[in-house]
């Protein structure tokens, strides 16, 4: 992954709604989700959802396909894996075994992740 690609992906994921969308699509797996379901699950109006999906698509983090009248969005796993590899490339001064050993205690949050508030409201 090139530096400018990593920056574009991190900028896209640095916005709360886009991160929520991306996490939802990662959880959905390769089959993805229709745009309407994404909007419903996250409580987003169509125009807002469209804007954020466009930003994620521009960063190559998601893709879509048309099925009948629906657009089905899915995460692009190779791009996410490349971003993770880029971010950990120099982890622990290049000693990847040290980085992997340190990950559970120093890199992983101890607090379980909670669903965003706007998704819980419904």
TrEMBL record:
<dbReference type="GO" id="GO:0003700">
    <property type="term" value="F:DNA-binding transcription factor activity"/>
</dbReference>
<dbReference type="InterPro" id="IPR001845">
    <property type="entry name" value="HTH_ArsR_DNA-bd_dom"/>
</dbReference>
<keyword id="KW-0238">DNA-binding</keyword>
<feature type="domain" description="HTH arsR-type">
    <location>
        <begin position="1"/>
        <end position="95"/>
    </location>
</feature>
<dbReference type="Pfam" id="PF12840">
    <property type="entry name" value="HTH_20"/>
</dbReference>
<protein>
    <submittedName>
        <fullName>Transcriptional regulator</fullName>
    </submittedName>
</protein>
<dbReference type="InterPro" id="IPR036388">
    <property type="entry name" value="WH-like_DNA-bd_sf"/>
</dbReference>
<dbReference type="InterPro" id="IPR051011">
    <property type="entry name" value="Metal_resp_trans_reg"/>
</dbReference>
<keyword id="KW-0804">Transcription</keyword>
<keyword id="KW-0805">Transcription regulation</keyword>
<dbReference type="InterPro" id="IPR036390">
    <property type="entry name" value="WH_DNA-bd_sf"/>
</dbReference>
<dbReference type="GO" id="GO:0003677">
    <property type="term" value="F:DNA binding"/>
</dbReference>
<dbReference type="InterPro" id="IPR011991">
    <property type="entry name" value="ArsR-like_HTH"/>
</dbReference>
